[in-house]
Every structure is written in C-alpha cells, then in structure tokens.
Amino acid sequence: MNRIASFWKKGKKALVPFVTAGFPKRDFTPEIVWGLADSGADMVELGIPFSDPLADGPTIQASSQIALQRGARLVDIFRMAEKTRAKIDIPLLLMGYYNPLFVYGLDKFCKDTSNAGVDGLIVPDLPMEEGAELSKTCRRQNLSLVYLIAPTTPPERISKIASASSDFSYCVSVTGVTGERKNMSAELKDFLLSVRMRTKKPFVVGFGISTPEQARQVAPHADGVAVGSALIKMFLEEKNQNTALRRACSLVAQMAGSLNGTG
Amino acid sequence: MKSASAVKNYRRPDARGHFGPYGGRFVPETLMSALFELEKEYAKARNDSQFQAEWKRVLTDYAGRPSPLFFAERASKELGFRLFLKREDLNHTGAHKINNVLGQVLLALRMGKKRIIAETGAGQHGLATATVCAKYGLECIVYMGEEDVHRQSANVYKMQLLGAKVVPVTSGSKTLKDAINETLRDWVTNVRTTFYVVGSVVGPHPYPMMVRDFQSIIGKEAKSQFFQRQKRLPDYLVACVGGGSNAIGLFYPFLKTKVAMIGVEAAGLGLSTNRHSATLTKGRPGVLHGSKSYLLQDSSGQVSPPHSISAGLDYPGVGPEHSFLKDSGRVEYVAVTDKKALEGFCFLSQTEGIIPALEPAHAIGYLLKARRRFAGCSVIFGLSGRGDKDMGIIQEHLKL
Asked: With an 8 Å Cβ cutoff, are B297 and A103 in contact?
C-alpha cells in the first residue's frame, strides 16, 4: 500500500496544495512543501513545468515559464522531490503534461518518480483512453495514476474513470482552466453528488478553489480539495519569497481548518 | 522515377483516431465529451446525402470550386518537366482553407452551436472562418499570435471588417502554436456552447480525419482533371506542409496509387540552425495540441519555438497522418529555406503571372532546387493560396 492509499484509510478530508516545481527558485521548492506540510497540507502536488500548459490559466502558466527559464527539468524535479521526501511523510504527487513524460520514457520516468519518493501522478492531458501504457507502468512501480473527471463527463464515463484511477480521482470544479474564481459554480454540488453516486473511491476537487470559505462549501461533498493558483499568485506578487511562503502557509492552515470543520 | 509504392487498403485512422502510433486524443477530460459528440455527428454527416449536397453546393456557388488544374507552360519549359498547378489560390478568400471551414461550419450549424472559435497563423484560416461565420450569422472569435497580428495585418483588418473578434495572443512565442493553446483554453471554458473550427489536420481525433476529408476535394478534383486530359495519373504530387491540410488534401485520393508524393517543409534559416519549422525532417515523436505526432522539441520534451518566413508554416507540430506517411515511406518529406522560398515566389510570379503565398512558394523553391529529379515527368503542385497577404514581408526582403 502506498502513502496515498494509507492516507484515505484515516477517513480525513485532504487538503492538496499545488506547487510549481522550480518556482520561484529551484532550491526553494522543498522549503515550500515542508512549510505547507507543517501548516496542514495532507498531500502536495508538484507541478512539472511545461512550455504549452493548455489546461492552465495565466497564473500557473506564468510560474511554469519562470521555472523553465530558471532551468527546471525533470532530473532537477526528481532531486527536489527526493530532498523534500527526506523530511516529510505525507503523500507527494507529480502533476504534469504528457509530453515531457513520454519523451523521458514512461518506464524510466516511473522508476525515477518512485525512487524519488513520489507516490502518484496526475496528467491533465491524458484521458483514460490514452493512459493504458502509463497505467501499467505506474502499477509496476506502486504509483497511483489519478485521472480527471469534468463537469462535462457523462455519468457512465464517471464510473469508468473512477475505476481506472488508482486511489482517488480528481474532479475539475468548472469547465475551464486553472485559476481563482470568486463564486463557486451552482452546478458543482450536483456534479459532486453525481460522482459520489458512481464511485466508492475517494475524490478531490480542484480548479478555482482558493479560499477557506470555498473549501468549507465543498467539504461535505468531496474527500478533499486542491488549491494551486491562489498560492502561486502569492509568490508571483511578493518579491520576498519567505514572506510569500508565510502567506501561503497561513492560507493552507485556514483552508485545512475549514475542510475538517475547525476553521 | 517513382519513389514510392502504393499503400493497399489504406484505411486510417482506426476507431480511436490513431494513424499507427500517431494521433489519438490527448486533451483535458472537459473536452472529451465534446470530441465524442463531434465524432458521432461527423460520422452521421459524412453519410448524409443532404449534408454532402449542401457542402458541395456552397463549395461551387460560394467558394468557386472546382478550382482549375492549370498547365504552367512557361514554368514547365524553364524547369524541364511538365508542371500543373492546382489553383486553390482562386478560391473565395484566396486559399484552400475555405473548403474545410465550410464543412466544419455546416457541421456546427447542424449541432446547434452558435459561437465559433478558431486560431490562425498567416490569417488565411481566420479569414475563411470569419467569412463563413458572416455568411451564416455566427459569432466568431479568432485567436492569433501577436507577432502574426503584426506581420499579417491586412488579414486582421479583413477579419474585423467581416465582424470577427481578433484576439492577439501574447503568451509563449506569440505565433500559431500559442494561438492554438489559447483557442483550446477558450474551448475548455465554453465547450457547451462553442464549436472549435480547427484550421489544419492537427488536434485531437476526429479533427485530423475530418479536416483531411474536407480537404480531399483538392486531390479528387486534381485526379479527375489530370486523368481527363492525360488519360493517366501524374508522376509526382508536391505540396507544402505546415500543419499539412493542403498537402493531405491533395495526397489522400492518390494514396492507393503509385504516384510519388513529396511534402515540403520550411527549413527557415537552415536545418543546421534551430531557426526552422521542419518538423518531419528534424523533429521526433511527441504530444502537442491533442495528438501524438512529430514535434520540434528539446531533449526534455519542451516544445521548441519554430521559425519560418511564412506565418502559415511557422508551427512546431504537424498532422499525425503525415507522421504515419513519413514512417511508412509512402510520402517523402523535404525542407527548403526562407531564401529558396523567396526564389520560388519570384519564379512563379515572373514565369506565370501568378503571385503565390509564401507557404506554397516553399514547394516551388523545392521544384527549382531539385528540378533534375523531375526531368520528363508530370508534376501536380498544390498552389494552396495567393500571395496578397504576404506583400509586407516580401517588400521587406525583396528590393525591386
């Protein structure tokens, strides 16, 4: 059983922050993850920067561009993950577009991912129809492969995706790209109920969730929430990276509290 | 003389949109149901005689088809072989793009989608989309890289005149690649109401197949026009390849024959530099914009910025069917530089009085460069569009 499967046994809701690997600087990524873990993060997604991130909004796009300019490549990301893993035991996931993985070689990629202490993968441009090879390779390395479910996914397909996902699924809260949104979609609750009816496996909700209040609204209907752009934005806006990290940790602590009913 | 053998029983893509190891659907889950719906509707429309008849009617009455197959007598004398031009430059809006746009917009109407989005590089696809949307009263948004907005300003103005909204894209290399990213982001956001009119044989399944089918009118006409006159098939087909819709449109109806085919890519400042768009010549398999195909990329899988004097060829990817045809050896792919394209541009202008677009000028550049190879043969060249849109670039490079 990997760390992700073990986590769900606890029956706790997961707060899953997203961090672009190598942003704002390569050597600062482990510091960010440690800080967020101390503040209540239950799992962390490390984003692999890509030149053409078509599922991302301007905030994450900008952070990817900066990370790439500063030389963040897969080999560096494995080193960052390894260093991060040395001090914490929460599940770590890599989130990245398919091409860098494919070019690196799926077999080698999964081996190196697993050796770096990472527990799972999220690939936003890989629907289950194209995922057979990666899924097989992940199983060999005891990695979770987490597929996405969207509000446009038909009911019978929701069941198929949830069953193809290893330890949980990732529900996209809106039809759209990543980024903060002021209001939660009115359809979100119905969508999450529909997912709940079709799978016994856990699922987290991401895309557009940025405040403790939104986390509180979603909490009864999901097993966790992911937050990305709201955190990345702090590092884009704030020149002092330690100040940005303090702000990010504070948001994560508040959201973790909201999610588990103490905030 | 003939360098390739026929591919018997050519039936591609397979049911999941794969051309051998290429193609497929690599998109966010949000788009999957729209792609399934499109695939289903297109399958119905393909076999619907009413849909096909309406498409043929507008191709004839509105776009001006069939386009002529013109024997270029003076050019042929100079070159030492018989050169026939498939005149897509004479279509309404000045390029082959209108064939595909009319097909896709009719499909959008059939599906009840009133909001149309498109991307454009050189502006020809954007112009065709804006034109057809004006004809049918549809909202039209065209994404265009900021760099292309500047170098193709005449087409931008025309699109605006036709009532389209042109959105300059400032991310990445600010060219076609980034315009496609933005169009996909728009589609992910507005997928329930919006139809994405893809401009080439790229993108997730069913687009590469559907665009190929719509553009195959070029090859079907060329085949029958040539046969009527010569009572045989030509020896060679030659066409430029960016995304590759004009080339596949010409080639596809000939794939089961023994006619040799050559696709000409943009070598930009030279294949030994990294300033080119020669995807099939210098790229390797990868995934971009929803399908697996040859791709210009660095060793870590980041997409490399392409370069070509021609905005329409300035793209790091290529249609997945071309990747399959390259690997199978059925089609040969070569590349010529910006400089050679300019020579081709002048050659056709001055021997035949036909000013080509910079995209097909690459293919003419290759015919000039490799003229001995074709000695005594008959060659059909896909003249994909006219050169009006490129006058600004030409004036910068050629002082008369």
From this structure: yes
